[in-house]
Amino acid sequence: MTHNGTKMTRRHLVATGAVGLAGAFAGCTGGDGDSGGDGDSSGTSQATSGGSTTQVPSSELTLSGWAADDTESELLKQLIGSFEENHSNISVEYNPVQSNYKQKLKTQLGAGNAPDVFYVDANYFGSFASEDVLLDLSDLSNAEEFDVDDFFQPLLEAFKYDGTLYGIPKDFSTLGLFFNTAMFEEASVEAPETWSELRSALSAVKESTDVKAPLVEFPNARMWKAMLFQNGGSMLNDAGDEAVFASDAGVEALQYLVDLKKDGLLAVPSELGAGWHGAALGSQEVAAAVLGPWGLPFLEENHPEVNKNIDVAHLPIPEDGQKATSAYTVSYSASAATESPAASKSLIKGMTSPDGMAKWAKKGLALSARKSHRDLEYYQNHPRRKTLLEAGEWSHPVAYGPNSEEIINLLHPQLEAAMLEKKAPKQALETAQSKINSEVF
Amino acid sequence: MAVGERDESGDSGVVSAVRDVLDGSLRARLGVTEDQNNLMGFLFVAPNVLMFSVFLLGPVLYAFYISFQEWSILRNAGTWVGLANYVDVLTPLPVQGGLTNLQLNTSVFTDPSVNLFWYSLKTTVIYAVGTVPLQIYGGLAVALMLDKRVRMKKAYRAAYFMPVMLSGAASAVMWRWFLAADGVINNFLEPIGELVGVQLAQNWAGNPSYALGGVMLMAIWGGIGSNMIFFLAGLQNVPEELYEAARIDGASAWQRFRHVTWPNLGNTNFFVIVMAIIGAFQVFGIALVYSEGGPVYATTTIVLLIYQRAFEEGKMGVGAAMAFILFLIIFAFSYHQYRHRQQEEVTY
């Protein structure tokens, strides 16, 4: 499965679940939006934080992105509505794209009729930025009452190219360890903090419960990318022009996962009845999974009983290792060819302002990209999401420069080969690394 | 096959019907003379030619142009690189060494990291060899059965045709469930396996050794239905008197099939073979939805590779070059079939 595949799966699942979810979500997010307890200063802050009422000429903007479901696009429309209220000279037309978003956006950019402001996934951000199709957003770094330093640094870095800022994080997701507390209690184990604790916890769960497998992971070993960094490794060198993941750190991490699989402690979804981690947790086929916040609405809605037992912990790290997880993030960016650069920047600023971001994050599907939001009442009331949010500090976005997708397409089949025991981990990583270094760089 | 030939073989009722109408009242009414026949013809085909040129021929020619460029879809511009894309795709070649000591370089077919194009070509050829004969002769067998007096014939025909009406994506999702580790198929295989003492149940989609088999199974399942329809149509065209004559001569059922039905199905057979081969080389949707080209490149067919290069990685030039190489391969097969067909043309 390609990286794109993984993401697609994620989005697909969200989309497919959407039909069923929509109803309950309406209740959930509606309630949150109405209560708005923690956004007490919102009205004023929005009005001033826009701050662009003076210079921005009258403009009509188009905004494009994708929406997981109707409540998400409703929420976005509300945000746009309140932006328009505070910027009477800017009107925004929202055009969500249902499928093949990236392909459509690329074609629009090539044809010169792209929307003014649009979502860009970090995974293909590099290919866009390197082709000069994105608007330089450096101004926003110094914008008043925007507080760009409040964004998690790794996310902001993901949207810089050659040191220039071309996107502001819309939201993000990190991977955490989702585990079934009832099963862990049955096995008398606690949330593991290290790799060896994880392994012994999984063994104990296998012994004392009747799960099909204690842990589920995709055959392309999604969590390996986080484990590589935990173990002191890195995907690319500092200059970003050479793959270096086939280091001892990388090989050791992959070997760890392969060993879990060999010993029956880890299964891939196709070996289970469930197609992905959320479903496997929900049907109690597994006791744990390394998953992102998008798993939570699914569990809350489809498996409310099991959901009560699901807790989220930070990913276990090696002894003497460093905290690290993977992040998936999307930006608001603007087209370099927009006729209204000032208005576009103003819109991006409004959507990602402390207040706009707080409203957006209450959707619960992805996390606020702002550090200060750790203290939001919403996250106090949703500790699992707070755990995932905290990890933003030490997260590594899954994005590897202008050739990110090619790198991932070359890496994933080799990770699969190792996980399916067709190749030794060292050999698989070295093959991928040398292919990437000869074909991409 | 030229239009004229088809007229003589008698399977173009529409053309002659149109001509009859034109010969009669319509032509008189429109005041069209014999010489203006061509003009009328062109008018009839003009909408199709126009649509074909704008939406198919134009883009195809443009893609050919792009295949010599390093093309950026984002900038809608490229730089001329000559044959570099083709060289990139095709090297290392499956043969190496000079003309005098030519050696086969089989590693391109066995190791996807040597050259993914040749590897995916091998995958596609295995797929084609495994599916085309079964699609065609499975379709023929079903057509022969359902051409007879069978109870609920129409229901059977509809049932066999059903997969053709399903979208490829839908059937791929369905088959993924059937072939899942705890899917329906394994539920049957498990007890049988226990009886004979063999591990029959497998992780069909998740195992690189079996994943392509799942895609092939799907294609055969879908292909039988469409070919059945073509063969049923072909069977209606076999004159009944030939069978009568054969029966009078004492021909057995097999002889009647071998010497009457089979030669008369020649045209259908040719059409079905060509279409099946083209379809097999272009397999994409079911492989993408069923297994996304994996695991470990097991279902990366040529078109899937083109999709990844062009639309995921943005290497439009390389994608276009691959597409033209694929075109040449398909053209070669189709042309070969056509020549072969001409040689064995039968007339009564």
UniProtKB/TrEMBL annotation, chain A:
Residues 41-54 have a biased composition (Low complexity). Residues 32-59 are annotated as: Disordered. This is Multiple sugar transport system substrate-binding protein. It is found in: Cell envelope. Coiled coil: none annotated. Its main location: other. Keywords: Signal, Sugar transport, Transport. The lineage of its organism: Archaea, Methanobacteriati, Methanobacteriota, Stenosarchaea group, Halobacteria.
Automatic annotation (TrEMBL), chain B:
The keyword Transport applies. It holds the Pfam family BPD_transp_1. PROSITE patterns: ABC_TM1. It comes from the Archaea. It is a multi-pass membrane protein. The chain crosses the membrane at residues 39-65, 125-146, 158-178, 210-233, 270-290, 316-335. Residues 121-337 form the ABC transmembrane type-1 domain. The keyword Signal does not apply. GO terms for cellular component: plasma membrane. It is found in: Cell membrane. SUPFAM superfamilies: MetI-like. Its main location: membrane. GO terms for biological process: transmembrane transport. Keywords: Cell membrane, Membrane, Sugar transport, Transmembrane, Transmembrane helix, Transport. Belongs to the binding-protein-dependent transport system permease family. This is Multiple sugar transport system permease protein. It comes from Halogranum rubrum.
